[in-house]
């Protein structure tokens, strides 16, 4: 590639990515050369400003038409913009938690590592959002995965952290191998890795032998990507990793990594498998295999909510809660209604605020008590009424109680499952039943906070960053529950119902 061709590309489309890349390189060099006594929290503020700059850069690109560079391997369409915005907002909130994070075993010497690894993981998720090619999708997936593996084991002298990182790496490697094997079938049949080119070629295939191989590719890719979603069958890593990882890393995995998982799932599945005709040639393979996706959604919802009932560790409880929420979003993906993109985007937006707000309070309590037992939430209302009320808001939203963002998110998914033909009555019923089951463990936390006596009456101090996260998340959770049209109007105005997704 000559210099003239290189300069001809519209590099401004990658503005947010360039900001994150430059920031991560600078942070790496600063952490390497700054003296050990230097307070690494300043690096966190630098990373936070970089993420804010990337948000501003992305907002400046909202009015742009669909653009692609590097032979259509990087696409900036409505889907990419919408989900990058979620990734960046979630990352900014996690960074505020990380700056205030101060566990009893200390993380001073590793704090710098966290910030630049965090940015590289975010970069991988952003690359996946804009990928128009299997190779760049896989590069983004691995960049996120490898960064996440290291972050999960950042507490190097903590045995639980070591164990969780090892389990994460092993499970992640297996799921990656399965995903890559499925992708190899797609490349072998089409001779291309570009999603649009593959989609065009696959529309013309009628040989049943190809259909059989493409079915195998579908199952392997879907099962492999289930790892990133923390959905069945690759859900078993989540409880151990959530418990062993530092709390900001747990928050990162529960929000940013999960959004990235759904991004790559939708990119591959909708772009490719909705183009493959099966049967008499009128039904796409993706619709023909809805029962399989629906089965995984149902099992994920049931397992996540039922196993959460027996948890005493607050981070393990939220791990199973996260598994259950992956199942709820898979219901929207199963239904494939015309509001699927809107429903998933809104649910993810609500999940960012209600989950990160809850993790901010979990971080405060677990740091103060030195333990993650749910019993330490006892009497929180007496120690800090504001914290107890805001935690109640986040729990009510996670449970899907009316008046919160979580309720609107679940309602959209529920209606989406019923508005298609044939309607998914069984899946919608399981969603309602498992939501009711979730009330038992969510309200168990509220019982501890409001009706159990506190072991001590000392007041809790709120660091500035954590306080900001709690306020922002509480306001957003209530606002999106009372006036959800704010988010949907923003979607309609800027993303045009994702009509440009397929090229």
TrEMBL record:
TM regions (residue ranges): 12-30, 42-62, 82-101, 113-129, 135-154, 166-190, 210-230, 251-272, 292-310, 317-338, 344-365, 386-405, 425-443, 464-488
Subcellular location: Cell membrane; Membrane
Catalysed reactions, semicolon-separated: a quinone + NADH + 5 H(+)(in) = a quinol + NAD(+) + 4 H(+)(out)
UniProt-listed GO biological process terms: ATP synthesis coupled electron transport
Pfam annotation, one family: Proton_antipo_M
The keyword Transmembrane helix is annotated on this UniProt entry: yes
Keyword Membrane: yes
Known role: NDH-1 shuttles electrons from NADH, via FMN and iron-sulfur (Fe-S) centers, to quinones in the respiratory chain. The immediate electron acceptor for the enzyme in this species is believed to be a menaquinone. Couples the redox reaction to proton translocation (for every two electrons transferred, four hydrogen ions are translocated across the cytoplasmic membrane), and thus conserves the redox energy in a proton gradient.
Protein's name according to its UniProt entry: NADH-quinone oxidoreductase subunit N
Organism: Mesobacillus persicus
